[in-house]
Amino acid sequence: MAAAPTQIEAELYYLIARFLQSGPCNKSAQVLVQELEEHQLIPRRLDWEGKEHRRSFEDLTVRVHYGMGLLLQLYIEADLQNYL
């Protein structure tokens, strides 16, 4: 069994799914979202006491507003770092 993803990995999976939803790969996005929920790979939320709770992909999408271009922006910044 694979190790649990880090917070950054979970957020990256989320961004990839959102990126796929915004283009022509809706079926791929649906499969990815199902697997994210099945394997509990969606970033957890913290309550006011600091306790972690599971959430659905839809709940995360409604409550967290990443710009749709964030994944592309992160890629460009990472690629630019290779040249520095």
TrEMBL record:
Highest taxon listed in the record's lineage: Eukaryota
GO CC annotation: nucleus
Pfam families per UniProt: BRWD1_N
Residue ranges annotated for the BRWD/PHIP N-terminal domain, each copy included: 5-63
InterPro entries recorded: Bromo_WD_repeat (IPR052060), BRWD/PHIP_N (IPR057452)
One of the GO biological process terms: cytoskeleton organization
Name this protein carries in UniProt: Bromodomain and WD repeat domain containing 3
Species annotation: Oryctolagus cuniculus (Rabbit)
Lineage: Eukaryota, Metazoa, Chordata, Craniata, Vertebrata
